[in-house]
Structures are given as C-alpha cells and as structure tokens.
C-alpha cells in the first residue's frame, strides 16, 4: 500500500524539507498546462501583436522559463534544481477564447520537476495578464494542473483528471 503521509511534515507535524540524499539520480520530466481566457478582441490584439507592451507570447515564455529557474526561491520547501530544459508552448484558441499554455521542465536529479513546470505555467499566464490588462481586466487564469511526470521512484504518472 502506498504511503499517504505528507512528506513535508515530520513526525510531530512540523514543516521540513524532505531529505533526498539517499535517492538516486534519474532523468525527470514534468508537463503542466493552464489557460487564460479573454475576450475575442483581446486575443486578436495579442495574435496581431498590437498591444503597447510588445510581443506578449515571447515575454511570457521568457518569464515562464525564468520563473521555473526560481521555483525554490518562491516555494519554501522546494529543492533548488539544476534544470536541463524548460520550454513553453502557447496555443491561441478562438473557441475558448484565450490561450492554452503548456510548460515542460526537465532535469537529471534526485527530485522531480513538477513544481517548476507548474510555476512556469502560472507565471507565463500572469505575464500575459499583465501585458494585456490595459485592453481587458476581466481575463481569467484557470485550470493550472500537472498533466504528466516521468522519472523517479513513481515512474510515469499521468493525471487522469487532466484534459
């Protein structure tokens, strides 16, 4: 039976960083997704590059990558990782209307990169919001979730609640 104990709590219930010194290094990959909904007019401004702040998707991609690299500074009990790759893909969708965001994070290490992928999606979405808020303040960031992870003791994990 799987241990359902919260790993960031000690036996007394105090928060602590998980000791990963005995874990073996493996290639770790995590993929996260999210979306930002907006009015069709706002999406058109982004698509056509007409917002005053510039190229929204390029800036959001750089912000997402930078955020993934800073995850351990933002989330108190995360281990600092040496990331080998972070990538973000943006899909403009007229039906949503809005932008689907996917981030992947990779490392070779003793702990996973789920938080890095989730932080990348979150900050990328926040950056889109920041750059487009002059055109629309009612955008909705939603459905940020881990889609899959690979590597480590648990192996491949796919989120059956996603998509």
Give the topology.
Blueprint: E1 26-37, H1 40-47, H2 56-69, H3 71-74, E2 83-93, E3 98-109, H4 114-132, E4 140-150, E5 157-158
Descriptors:
single chain; 163 residues; alpha+beta; five-stranded antiparallel sheet; 4 helices; elongated
Q: Could you please describe the fold and organization of this structure?
A:
The chain has 163 residues and is an alpha+beta fold. 28% of the residues lie in helices and 29% in strands. It has 4 helices and 5 strands, in the order βαααββαββ. Strands 2-3-1-4-5 form a 5-stranded antiparallel beta sheet. Strand 4 and strand 5 form a beta hairpin. Helix 2 packs antiparallel against helix 4. The longest helix has 19 residues, at 114-132. The two termini are 28 Å apart. 36% of the residues are buried.
Beta-strand percentage? 25-35%
Number of helices: 4
Strand order in space, largest sheet: 2-3-1-4-5
**Average residue-wise pLDDT:** 91
| Computed CA radius of gyration, to the nearest angstrom | 18 Å
Count all strands and give the number: 5
Brief synopsis:
With 163 residues, the chain is of the alpha+beta class. The protein has four helices and five strands, in the order E-H-H-H-E-E-H-E-E.
């Amino acid at each position: 039976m799987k241990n359902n104990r919260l790993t960031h709590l000690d036996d007394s219930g105090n928060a602590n960083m998980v000791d990963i010194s005995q874990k073996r290094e493996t290639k770790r990959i995590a993929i996260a997704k999210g979306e930002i909904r907006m009015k069709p007019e706002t999406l058109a401004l982004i698509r056509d590059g007409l917002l005053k702040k510039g190229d929204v998707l390029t800036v959001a991609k750089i912000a997402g990558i930078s955020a993934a690299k800073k995850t351990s500074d933002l989330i108190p009990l995360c281990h600092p990782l040496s990331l080998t790759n972070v990538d973000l893909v943006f899909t403009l969708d007229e039906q949503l209307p809005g932008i689907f965001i996917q981030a992947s994070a990779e490392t070779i290490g003793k702990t996973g990169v789920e938080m890095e992928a989730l932080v990348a999606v979150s900050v990328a979405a926040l950056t889109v919001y920041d750059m487009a808020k002059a055109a629309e303040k009612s955008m909705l960031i939603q459905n940020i979730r881990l889609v899959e992870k690979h590597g480590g003791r648990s192996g491949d994990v796919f989120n059956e609640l996603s998509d």
